[in-house]
Fold these 2 entries.
Entry 1:
Amino acid sequence: MKFLNKSVLTFVMLLCSITIWAQETLKTESFYVRGNCISCKIRIEKAAKDMGTSSVNWDANEQKIHVTYDSTKTSSDKILKHIADVGHDNEKYTSETKVYDKLPKCCLYDRNFKWGEKNPLVHMDEEEEAPKQATKTEDEHAGHGHGKEANQIDGVTVTKTKAATALSKKEVGLTFNIDSKELLKAACCNLSESFETNATVDVSFSNAVTGTKQLKMLGLDQKYTSLTKELLPEIRGLASAYGLNFIPGKWIGGIQLTKGGSTVVNGYESITGQINTELLKSHDEKSATEINLFADFEGRTEANITHTSPLSDHWNQSILLHGNATLGNTDMNKDGFLDRPKGTQLNVTYLLNYNDLDHSGLGSHFGVNFLQDQRTAGQVGYNKRLSQKEQDLYGVGIDISRFQVWNKTGYVFKGKPYQSLGWMNQFTYHQQDSFFGFRNYFGKQSTFYSNLIFESIIGNTNHKYKVGASFLLDNYNEDYLNQNIERQETVPGLFAEYTLTGTKYTLVAGARVDFHNLAGTQFTPRLNFKYDITPQTILRLSGGKGFRTANVFAENQQYFASNRKIEIINNGGKIYGLKPEIAWNYGISLQQEFRLFNRKSSIVADVFRTDFQDQVVVDLDQSAHKILFYNLEGKSFATSFQTQWDINAAKNLDFRLAYKYYDVATDYISGLKKVPFMAKHRAFFNAAYATNKSEKGGFWNFDATLNWIGEQRLPNMGHNTAAGHLGNYSKPYTTLNAQVSKNFTDKIRVYLGGENLTNYKQHNAILDAQNPFGNNFDGGMVYAPIMGINMYVGVDFKF
């Protein structure tokens, strides 16, 4: 231990010495430099590099250049003078008029406004192509799959196009940025429906009684994906089963979806990836209010009101209101059970934001949320007001109350834009009172999470690092039948991450150590590497470890609506008698952009492999009347391959095609078997078309998404005579969702859509539905849609 302490001390002193020595000669500074587009960026950065900078980045949105240089070899004066010589005004030098006039028209920035203001002309970020000149009538259109901005200069319109779902070329990991415009392609009433037009995430019903949906990624269940909101832990623990319903689609400002191991800064639970949801915030000087009304033809209605407004130069707020009600008795397969529960939800969030990063360097975000969700399921006619013993009908009741408060505060050190300190905190209280026939399940969870992050550089911005500390406190109190299980998990942790940036590559290496009071000390390393073979060809590699503690009851509530007996085989662990889950994930991907028939196109192919070192196995095969939980003995793995092709096939017409292959298997007590309810082959197709804007600003959008799901292995039901006809494998099936919308103006939008237009429904989704209190009753054997065709209509008003 003494040797380790001395080694660490020596390393820290050596690191400090190197940093101090480097900073004596290396300077990192930021200056205002005028420009418009990607052509400006290339010109400005080349001029800076010509004067001997070791690192340079010009940001169009900030109108700033960030440079690192050796003060013994050059100076900021020389750098800015040379930038002015090539045509770009800056805070020290003004370009000669004759040089400015020779710039391309797209580069002619406005020379008549104060430093510190944002350029009102078009800015190009690193995700976008250089602007092209076109007449307004030819190129300005609604672009349903894209967001556009346009500015007219001397009769010429310069446009920029941002894809509604874009694979980031800048991020080291395989990260998809899903814009709020993508969510307009489908009903998107909550987060579980936000991925209907996304090929990466698989969405399916978890059982035939509660009507809830679950996500799967890289061939594994939702619980292995880190689901965050505002980069804070969100859908985990007791919220696992129903948490996707707690984030309304109209509240979502954007989603970042990362496949494979994510950064260690955000925690240790990510195994297959991370899905982060950003809530709607104000980015404008004007107030904006939007009202959304939605209803489907089966008795579901909802209303959303979102209001964002500035309070002062540095303060803005968001008020998010949501309410829904399902009143109809939907039983499309005529088995006597509701295909989805009836109930109501009230959901309220308030966000307060402070931003003064440019002056004081301080920014802060505060949020508070309250939710009340009540649902009733089971047989048609069940009366929730009567106890189960007072009636013959089978019923399910789920009441959830949830409260959250969080804050994120960041400080950027003055004169050091590369150095910052951030601190985020969140408290969550979650309570569920529920019953499934004669089975009761009550759960309470209170969670406190804190994360402190310091970010800076070593010498120059090519060498960045983050270090920090986190703390997680989970208190659980669960009652299932006659069992009461209480536990407290305390997890202090430390982490460090280093980013090396080269001309064509970026390497991110991180590790964290967490001191879990029940699972022991856990070391979590992760590595991500990106290499730009060409600007249009990007190779990515990733590898890393993740661990989590399983919540046996909360994460498997889809099987509560059955008469299977739950058995946990104790393995000496301290959480339900089980050990924690530990897995390694590795991935490789290739991103290729090209032009086909002079239209923009891209192909992404990736392969990921997940190997479990420890796992809590959910075994449905041992008996049709039992569900077993035990620790893995042997191997468990998931291999996934996906290729996706996005193409702008014609003006305003976009296609997305994808194919996915999964090989997922686990060693059960009965031997190595394919994991049930996981199709080996899947195919996906999405088409989006938008008409040109009319003179009044109106336009139409048309979207369609086709999913083909191959056969899936079904659990062994050989001992269940009522369900013996299910067979070993399901049949392949196809679903089709479509929507048409009309924007009458920028303020009014109406949409009409249909889900599962192929009308495919799983036959006998509930086993022995006529005898729900018998031994063979099971509502958890679901592999396909429960509901048939469902039409919906909605309207958006903006003020």
Note: The radius of gyration is 28 Å.
Entry 2:
Amino acid sequence: MPRRPPCKGLTVQLRMAVTDSVTPQSQAYQQTKGNMEDHSNGKTEYTSLHEVSYPPGHEGRLSSELAATPSRKPAKEYPFTLDPFQQEAIRCLESGESVLVSAHTSAGKTVIAEYAIALSLRDNQRVIYTSPIKALSNQKFRELSEEFSDVGLMTGDVTISENASCLVMTTEILRSMQYRGSEVMREVAWIIFDEVHYMRDRERGVVWEESIVMAPKNSRFVFLSATVPNAREFTDWVAKVHQQPCHIVYTDFRPTPLQHYVFPSGGDGLYLVVDEKGTFREENFHKAINAVTAGYEKRNRATNPKRKRDYENSENSDIFKLVKMIMLRQFDPVIVFSFSKRDCESLAMQMAKLDLNNEDEKSLVDGVFSNAMDSLSEDDKKLPQVGHLLPLLKRGIGVHHSGLLPILKEVIEILFQEGLIKCLFATETFSIGLNMPAKTVVFTNVRKFDGDKFRWITSGEYIQMSGRAGRRGLDDRGICILMLDEKLEPAVAKSMVKGLPDPLNSAFHLSYNMLLNQMRCEESDPEALLRKSFYQFQCDRALPQLQDKVLCLEKEWEDKKIEDEDNVKNYYSLLEQSRKLHHEVQNIVFSPQHCLPFLQPGRLARVIISGMHENEELFLKSEEPSVWGVLVNFEKVKGSSLASMDESVKGLAIEAGHMIDILSNCAISSERNKDETVRPVPLDETGEPIVASLPLSRIESLSAIRINLAKDLRSLDAREATLNKVREILRRFPDGLPMLDPEDDMQVDSSSYKKAMRRLERIENLIETQSLKSLPNLEDRLRSYHEKEELKQLIKAARQDVRAATNLVFKDELKYRTRVLRRLGYATNDDVVELKGKVACEISSADELVLSELIFKGLLKDASTEQMVSLLSCFVWQEKVKSEKNLSEDLATLYSQLRETARRIGKVQQECKLSVDVEDYANSFRPDIMEMVFAWAKGAKFSEIMKLGNVFEGSLIRAMKRLEEVLQQLISAARSIGEQELEEKFQAGSALIKRDIVFAASLYL
């Protein structure tokens, strides 16, 4: 790994200043400023903030005392001038105190980690270096091994020199060592947490919190993080939990400034929207947006799918033009980010006519690739992925995503580092941890699917990926290019490219494995862990603000005086009752049993406009705003329909059981993507004639009039002509269209309908007789009373927030989960871990309850080793794929028993008041790769098993590695309960899958 060279012409002047700002738990320490004279930008202001958090009751030292710490020879010296923030962090380390270094990518955080390791080795102490992913651990092991001699590696897959003084490992391994009471933990002086902002990860973030809370009391920490706006909050938490000072050295200085451009889809040029000084250029942005609209129309002129395909794969495609432009302007190397594995590959294929390497470089690529592939068998060398990639790589074009074979990913990383790949198409994961900057970064899209919906990428995600642009010491600036094919509001764009990083918020959650391990440890206690969690700390810290919010709302409520309030209250109450009764009547009349016979195509219908409930005038009306449209179709809601439905209508659709397709004038959101929203609007407003799907409950009334519909409404002209007919009919009936009468026409004769109508008539008569009705300022008084009622609801919610923050978070969930463990026999009423619990304690990479139940049910013992391994694949496979073939009878029986066990456990959790959907829980165990894993365990070649399913090679290998990890945990579990036969069976299963390309050694090792 090449070292960072000193920046030429760089001079640093340091000015110290001690500030007086002190908070109960933290003290501002000092601020460092200096002028950096850069050969590209002249003078730029460098700011490094240095603060220190102290635990409660701890008297902080002044900066002069820290500076007066006896100095020894530096543990490590560098051939370049250290930046001010690096100097400050190293002073903290030399004083033996923990530090969080928060800085942009490529700012030089690794220098501090290396110094902490050198310090430990100098003082004959042990140090642990943790990283979020195995690939990064492997890469760090390689780098550190070149720098230091006494380095080991522990990732679950590989263990090298486990007794070394410096151990590189994943955070999960560290957590496991802590629970096991490993001897190593007693000797550790420093723990380095790389990429600690990963703690906010929804699934794995909790591991960081557990590891930090359970770390030995005599250890010190080095936290390396991207810039986070609430870094001070994090260090305050560490100081409180470990009763030791924790420094924060924060800098938002970028060694290489960035320029941000927009490339409009279908356009020919770049528009500079944010310059290297961070100025947002509004005029340029609007020009780019106008070019996007023009490009969108241009692309849609090609209605023939074949012509569109030819366009995308030709030299006219946007990505081809952009990459070619980048190469001509010498902005390479470039990383092109896409949020889809398949898109990465298809975009790379569009570069077919680009050749970015000369003959010498091609020869080097061929040599590196051939040497790497020598470790594979002859059959594996013939895999399609291996064969398809080499021609691309030789032309200087690469692809990097989780679906690639791990060995290919590593080859690509090495080639990219050596400058032999000029254009790399990568997914977001390439921006996490791997230190591989480029001159230019391109975003093919600024929207991503986050597992629930499509959304704009956050400013934090943008900062993380754009941070790869600009190589320190090589580039005078980094280039970021956003490819836009949809409208982006200036406010959204500005917040994306100039916004703050994502805050470091806790993703703490309880698991059964955590609870059982806490019960089993002598000095541990689940409640104590909850109290010390960052989640609890953030809740406690928010308490004063929540209490102030309640006081402010209460004062606002008291200050809102309304003339003749009691009478206004009564009148308001009548209006509310009237509105609710209207709803009740509507729900009865337009229930499927009454209205389905009248939902013929062509019938005119009024539908309630969605999203109008917030209208401040609505409480004055008994009916909600509605618009006219033409019924096209109706259908019963099915599961597949719900999957793609907008969240705002999904609940209503489920309740109603039917959806209607209605042609109406609609406003459509500017996002031309899968989650675009369509909302009916009045016929005289600007909109488009669109057939929208709405829940049946949105029908307000049905007209007696039907019109003839065109046979095909797919063309815009046909839809527009139909709406013009509706406009003409409305013009002919100025007093209103003839409507279907609920009783006479629709035969609604239920007792609930009659009762609701009688109550509605009584309420409306009372409203008519109200003396207040004629007052000229009644509307203002009602509006004020409505605001006062809303304030009352806000006060109620704020008080609930205060109560929740006062109590221990997760207290109820802890009680419910403990109840589950007792019901299933994992722990006694005195929280003593039983035999089943000992097994679940060892399982952290899969569902510990279901897996433990299968063991004690005898299912894993009775199945053959190959079948057992195949069944375990259901615990590690998470991607959704379409299975192309049914399971064999034996595997289907095993899978059925697994689902039955999952349902039983799901029901127990439900009965213990946990929010669990039993069917969703059972469906989370996916059988998609069972046949593939079974064939692999039987000895099939990798090329043969890839024909059994439509999955990426890399995704399957990652699942196999996770499967082997689970098997290792099951070996430990069987050993812990003295099940030798089962232990041997798990070992045999591990041996069956651990072979060939699936477990090929990392090139970094």
Note: The longest helix spans residues 778-806.
